[in-house]
Structure formats: structure tokens, C-alpha cells
Design brief:
16 helices, 0% strand, Hypothetical protein af1432
Length: 293
């Protein structure tokens, strides 16, 4: 029996049955240039979410121990001063998206989906800090965390057909996106971009999700356009380093054009980059563990 082709309308209608996308993500991204507004957004979110509160305080107390602080940190303002706005922002974003993904997969989901996306998000962050070309580190994290969100949508839409796509991709040794297009008429990257646009995320994040498997077509060198090769390279490195031990982790073809656009140099410093990616991925997946459903 043939499988109906998926259109943008199909995706948007299907997304309405998902949990509400966390508004805090859009608020954080739109207030990045206003530190006071960003601080207010973060503190409001932390106060309203006991899980995020506990995570921020946990990180702050670990920092306090390293700094030989005698008293325990128990308030958010002290925690933020110890940990720093940037790290608190990342805790809030990963926690919020983790809860969102957990809500989607309550009925069962790809075993290591969230772990892989956290690892790619971390790799995006570290790569953004490593390269010299301009790119927003916070946008890089979100693009990495959501780069495969279209796979989760496909899993919910037609679990059997999606799983069969993976079996075919592994058996034929071709990319999953190619099999998805043969089966559904569209691949998970395009679906993910449609979702990002529907959730009103910045255009650069939607573009990075859409083109992370095909970054060679990018000609623009703006900070937003740099997200496309960044997410591509980060995912390839995440798979090459086998950060989550997934069966699906295969070394994709690394785009030379993407590396050139990022000004990525494979010198002695690259080993320290790999080390940071591995260490932070391991820590993040323990700290932000979303139980397998």
C-alpha cells in the first residue's frame, strides 16, 4: 500500500496535536541583545519551573564548592552571579526543549533521539566558540537541539514507515534523508524547517535545520547563514566521535565547502575541540537526561 505524500499543511496540522512549543525559547532569542530583559526572562522562567530551578542551583553549588564557598547557594540571583548568564541561559533552553520532546514521546519514541540532539547542540556551541567567523552561540545551540525534530514528527506520523526508512538506509548504506524522500516525498530536514517556521523561530535556525544535510548551496556568509555549515559539521563530528553510541551513528560525508565557510582548520587545536565536545556531551546527557520511553 502506498504511503500518502507529506505536505507542509500535513505537518502543520499534525503539529497542533503536539505539546505547546516552549515560548521561553523565542523570548530568550529575542532578548539576547538586551541583557536586562534577558535576565528578567530567565529569572521568571526559573521561578516558575522547579526542575529548572533545581538544575541551576545544582550547577551553582558545584561552582561554589570549587570556589570554596562555605554556605550553600539557595537563591536564583546568587546562582546566576556564580554560574553566569550564558550558562544559565543554556540550562533553561536545554531543559525547556527536553521537557517539550519528552511530552511528544510519551507514547514511545526513538531510543536515543534526545541524547543525539543534545550532543549535536553541545557540538554546535563548542564549534561556534572555536571558529573565528561570526555566529550566535545561543542560536547554534537551538539549531543543534532541533536539527532532527522532523524525525520525531515522522515517527509520530507513521512509526512503521519511519522505522522501515532507517532499516533501508542502513541496509543500502545511503542517507536517511534520501529514503525519507522516496517514502514520504519529503525529508526530516524540510519537515523540521516547516516546524521551526510555524513556531516562529528565527529564519537562520529554520534554514540551518532545512539544509544541515546539504550545506554546499550556501553562498551567504552572514552570522545567520553560518548556522547551516555549523550544524552540518557539528552533526558529522558528533557521529564521528560516537558521542551517544547509537546504531544509527555513521560518519556522514563532511562538506569541504562547509569547513571552508567556517574557516575550520584541522590543526593541533582541533584535538582540544574534540575533547571539549566529548566531555560536555557526556555531562549534558547525564545532567539533562530525558528517560527513554
Amino acid at each position: 500500500m502506498s504511503i500518502p505524500l507529506i505536505t507542509r499543511d500535513t505537518v502543520i496540522k499534525g503539529s497542533r496535536s503536539l505539546p505547546v512549543f516552549p515560548r521561553i525559547i523565542n523570548e530568550i532569542l529575542t532578548t539576547l541583545d538586551d541583557p536586562d530583559a534577558n535576565f528578567n526572562v530567565l529569572t521568571r522562567c526559573i521561578h516558575l519551573d522547579p526542575v529548572i530551578t533545581a538544575r541551576v542551583l545544582s550547577v551553582a553549588n558545584m561552582a561554589a564548592v570549587r570556589g570554596r564557598r562555605e554556605s550553600e547557594v539557595s537563591d536564583i540571583y546568587t546562582a546566576i552571579s556564580l554560574v553566569g548568564m550564558s550558562r544559565v541561559r543554556h540550562i533553561v533552553m536545554i531543559s525547556s526543549l527536553g521537557a517539550f520532546v519528552g511530552g511528544i514521546t510519551l507514547g514511545g519514541g526513538p531510543g536515543k533521539f534526545w541524547q543525539h540532539n543534545v550532543s549535536v547542540g553541545v557540538c554546535c556551541q563548542e564549534l561556534a566558540l572555536h571558529i573565528s567567523v561570526p555566529v550566535c552561540v545561543d542560536s547554534a545551540l537551538i539549531a543543534g537541539l532541533l536539527h532532527d525534530i522532523g524525525q520525531l514528527w515522522l515517527f509520530g506520523h507513521n512509526t512503521g514507515a519511519f522505522q522501515q526508512c532507517w532499516h533501508q538506509a542502513l541496509g543500502r548504506n545511503v542517507g536517511i534523508a534520501e529514503i525519507e524522500r522516496e517514502t514520504f516525498g519529503v525529508d526530516h530536514a524540510t519537515i523540521g524547517a516547516w516546524l521551526a517556521e510555524y513556531w516562529a523561530l528565527p529564519a537562520g535556525i529554520a534554514a540551518a535545520i532545512r539544509s544541515h544535510h546539504a550545506p554546499d548551496c550556501v553562498k551567504d556568509a552572514s552570522p545567520e547563514a553560518n548556522l547551516i555549515p555549523l550544524v552540518h559539521v557539528a552533526e558529522v563530528l558528533s557521529n564521528a566521535l560516537d558521542l551517544t553510541g547509537r546504531t544509527e551513528n555513521r560518519i556522514n560525508t563532511l562538506s569541504n565547502a562547509a569547513c571552508l565557510q567556517l574557516g575550520l582548520v584541522w590543526d593541533a587545536d582541533i584535538r582540544s575541540l574534540f575533547g571539549r565536545m566529548e566531555a560536555r556531551s557526556c555531562h549534558a546527557n547525564r545532567f539533562f537526561n530525558a528517560p527513554e520511553r
